[in-house]
Amino acid sequence: MRGKQAFVQYYSAQRIVDEEQWGDFTDALERPLPITFTVTRQFAGGLGLHLQDRLRDGAFPEVHCLDWYPDGSAWKVVTRREEWSPEFKGFLLAATESGLIVRQELVSMIPALMLCEPTGDGAIQSILDMCAAPGSKTSQLLQLVRERTTGLPFADDGVVVANDIDANRCQLTLNRLKCTGSSALVMTRCDATCFPTNTLFDRVLCDAPCTGDGTIRKSPKMMSRWKSTSGTNLHCLQIKIAARAFQLTKPGGRMVYSTCSLNPVENEAVVQYLLREFGSAIELVDMSKALNGLHRSPGLSSWEVMAATKSCTKLSSFKDVQSAKDAGFGGNCPSSVFPLHDSSLELSRAMRFVPHLNDSGGFFVAVFQRVPTCSPLADAPVMTSTIRGSNDCTFTPLLEVDGGREMAETLRSSMSLADTFPMNLLHVLKRDDGGESGRRSKVYMLSPQALEKTRFHTETEGLMHSGVRVFERTCRKDSSLDDFRICWEGLPHVLPHMNPDERIRLIPPSTFRALLHSLAVPIDSLSGLRDALDGALLGNIVLQSEFRGHRVSVAARYGRVSVQVQNRGALFRYLARILD
Question: Residue 549 has what pLDDT?
């Protein structure tokens, strides 16, 4: 049995909502899902902070702030598409394409926030996102680990490892995460069920593969294909990934298990398995007071397991499975899917987010603590998966490659960098030979913690990417200008170390906006530009202007007759309209 009738019959038996709320629940499933998004506050050049202030000041009446989200960084579109103004349509398109905002379902924002809730046991230095694609949760984690370890939106101290099993999804995720400009990012491609346990993490997010029936509002056609056995077929994979996630959590650290499924077989049954498997080493944390204003339901202590027969036969225990197969069950049904009815497990501490409570999709979240004083867990085997990362994705310290020290001196002089600039964190790709000239073309910065993880995953051949690109060699014919430029995503890491007298200039807002319209602007074509550039050295400069109390910055090339802003296409054309 499949489709809407099976869905209704199955979930009405599960009692995931009270009987009096059943109508509200099913009505919500019929309504389109509202658009929600988060602002990338750490977006290069202060643009994210500026946008957030503009939204707070009512720049677009089409959106309202989600009050329960920390720092007011999450927003919900509250009007229908036909009511959108042309300005708002342009904003949504350009800001999404550039990464200035991240389109993310409301309930999908919850796991990362729960994972990074302050616990009073020190800063969070390392996070693993085991099944990271498409990257929206990882983007949150990068921002949270940055702000909660340093207190600053543009300083990195820590590492976030984003992992996925599929190469195409890894690349999609990486493209989305580059806009964060984080030197704490490490991207790996490993089978999550056998991710290496040689290194442990302060926090682990296990957003497991699932049936996804909580996303029916976004994908209504899913309802016609819904089957009661889909969850049982995924259960074994889910418990394997979740168990490995807990093994990767440091003593005293936290792990979050989440799915976008409503099904207790994919949710409470997995939580129950972990609590029984790890015993006194694991605790299910009560997070009912976290994120005040966000409505949730407690986890279930009992649920039904059903066969895929026309009558959706209920299976009372594992003993009934064989008879159900004889009756047409046809699905994998391990004993761990059945409830133990053990009140000491306190499964009610898990959280289910059903669509009608927050006008959202459906989601499930459980937060675990690894007991600090627990005995060591049984050794897990090191990764033996045949999945490989990029064979040539090997990062080498810039100062250790041939010509690296000369390169470092070129960077220091061409950017007027102070001695405080961490040259030891600069790396180049081993595969990057710079073409026939043998000159390396891209330079990356890795946080110290990202460097540690990168060295390990290079050895295990699962590495896809590390850090943030900060410098790139140009191919200019004018030999009087330096060879390197500052990459837009790396600007926040370079700017604090540049000599302001030689490389940084504050210009009027009107001039700043005008520069965003063109690839190259003659210096004398804009009023006051030549005077502002007086005393600046030719080559790499940073142009800044004040907008709403935020200093917005862009990297540029200063030549003898013109200034060229490092153009970001649609983003800059949009910014030229919105900056005020």
Answer: 81
Cα–Cα distances (Å) from 536 to 125, 492, 516, 524, 558, in that order, read 39, 20, 20, 16, 9
CA-to-CA distance for 252 and 372, rounded, in angstroms?
4
Tokens representing residue 511 in the block: 């001039």
Residue ranges with strand state E in 288-414:
297-298, 305-306, 314-315, 351-353, 363-370, 395-397
Cα 294 to Cα 105, 354, 359, distances in angstroms: 14, 11, 11
Catalytic, 374? Answer no
Query: What would the 3-class secondary structure string for 417-433 be?
Result: ECCCCCHHHEEEECCCC
Answer yes or no: are the C-beta atoms of 246 and 204 closer than 8 Å.
yes
Query: Which of the residues in the chain have pLDDT under 70?
Result: 1, 44-45, 148-156, 308-312, 323-331, 374-392, 431-440, 457-461, 475-482, 567-580
The Cα–Cα gap between 561 and 121 comes to: 56
The answer to whether 47 and 74 have CB atoms below 8 angstroms apart is no
Binding residues for S-adenosyl-L-methionine: 131-137, 164, 191, 207
Q: H-type helices in 298-373, by residue range? A: 321-326, 355-358
Segment 59-88, tens digit of pLDDT: 899 999 999 998 889 999 999 999 999 989
pLDDT digit string, tens, across residues 1-16: 679 999 999 999 999 9
**pLDDT for 515:** 84
CA dist., res. 233 & res. 237, Å (int): 8
Cα–Cα nearest to 207, from 247, 241, 173: 241
Q: Is the dihedral of CA 255, 159, 290, 293 positive or negative?
A: negative
Q: What is the pLDDT of residue 149?
A: 59
Among candidates 354, 114, 137, which has minimal Cα distance to 254? 114
**How far is CA 515 from each of CA 160, 537, 563, 575, rounded to the nearest angstrom?**
35, 19, 8, 11
Contact at 8 Å (CB) between 208 and 257? yes
The pLDDT of residue 579: 66
Bind-site residues? 131-137, 164, 191, 207
What is the chain's length? Answer: 580
Structure tokens of 340? 């133990």
Provide the β-strand partners of residue 521: 563
Exactly one of 260, 333, 393, 487 is catalytic; name it. Answer: 260
Distances (CA, A) of 156 to 95, 446, 461: 23, 9, 25
CA distance 408 to 424: 10
Distance CA 491, CA 513 (A): 19
d(CA 231, CA 265): 6
Give the pLDDT of residue 231: 92
Whole-number Å distance between alpha carbons of 8 and 26: 8
At 148 the pLDDT is 66
